[in-house]
Amino acid sequence: MEQNVSPFIGNPGPGLERDLRQSVRARILRAAMPELPEVETTARLVRPRLLGRSVRAARVGWPRTLGGLGTAAFERAVRGAEVRAVGRRAKWVVIELARGGAPAGVLLVHLRMTGRLVVEDAASDAGPWLRVGLALDDGNELRFLDVRKFGRMLYMADPAAHFADLGPEPLGPEFTADWLFGALRERRRALKPLLLDQTFVAGLGNIYVDEALFAAGLHPLRRSDVVTRAQASELHAAIQRILAAAIEREGSSFDTFYRTPEGRPGEYQHLFEVYGRGGEACRRCGALIVRSVVGQRGTHVCPRCQPKPRPRRPS
Ligand SMILES: [Zn+2]
């Protein structure tokens, strides 16, 4: 039987500690980063537990998680503030604060590789990976846990400048099939690196780009300016359909540290068509899925469903 080696669930006891450490190291090496569906799930699940709560106190276990703001300044900024909204922009959880009904800045949380946001009884043991804890007025604590410490919880009086360069949200009203077709035409880049570029479209990462390109029958190296209107339209539909399905299943926990704030793994990894399936048969055509490296990222392709672009003749 598989042992429960998640660093986030339960206490393994001293006998298992070395196994746990080795397992954590092995898992970090093949970790995929949370993307839009995982961050959206996190925001949705902490929202009802945070709305209307006020922050009694802050504790900071790893000052760098604050991204440069001093611990004392961070505490002053959040103590006494009330949570008035919890949302998401790109791969950031956005927690809006208020004082006396007036906006009082935001907390921006990025999970990066191993970060996790939970709301737990403040009296419970937070474990060794607590980087920031915000004690709430109902006896709970909002905890940012992060094994690898690349995650961030930033306080900002106004996040507008921070988000200024981001592309549209793929589930938002700006992201239409027409917009995508025009935007692909304007760029002259390979599809995969372009879709990973947060200034082009926000929130996509390695997993969902591979899945969307497969669904649309497009090779990751196909140039964006030769994609036809019909292909752009299929890609648009695939991105929206896959993200919505992944949110419905609380994201993917295939090779990531990602767990929902309630400690559950996501379920979408069971529906992967290509991601993490190198050497396995394509469910659509039977050809073997090929894993290669594109722009330093593991990339998964069905060579039959996603034909390689032919080299262009000089015109
Ligand atoms: Zn195939």
Proportion of residues in β-strands: 15-25%
Q: Give the oligomeric state of the chains in this entry, treating copies of one chain as homo and distinct chains as hetero.
A: single chain
The CATH superfamily of the largest domain is identified as MutM-like, N-terminal
- CATH fold-level name of the largest domain: N-terminal domain of MutM-like DNA repair proteins
Q: State the helicity in percent bands.
A: 25-40%
Mean pLDDT: 91
Unreliable spans = 1-14
Features:
single chain; 315 residues; alpha+beta; N-terminal domain of MutM-like DNA repair proteins; Helicase, Ruva Protein, domain 3; 2 domains; four-stranded antiparallel β-sheet; 21% strand; disordered N terminus; binds zinc ion
Overview of this protein structure:
With 315 residues, the chain is an alpha+beta fold. It folds into two domains: 36-163, N-terminal domain of MutM-like DNA repair proteins (Alpha-Beta Barrel), CATH 3.20.190; 177-301, Orthogonal Bundle (Helicase, Ruva Protein, domain 3), CATH 1.10.8. 28% of the residues lie in helices and 21% in strands. It is built from eight helices and ten strands. It has helices at residues 17-29, 36-50, 71-78, 160-163, 177-186, 191-196, 206-216, 229-248; strands at residues 55-60, 82-89, 92-99, 102-110, 115-121, 130-136, 140-146, 152-156, 290-294, 297-301. The strands form three sheets. A four-stranded antiparallel β-sheet has the order 1-6-7-5, with helices on one face. Strand 6 and strand 7 (140-146) form a beta hairpin. The termini are far apart. Bound molecules: zinc ion. Residues 282, 284-285, 287, 302, 304-305 line the site of zinc ion.
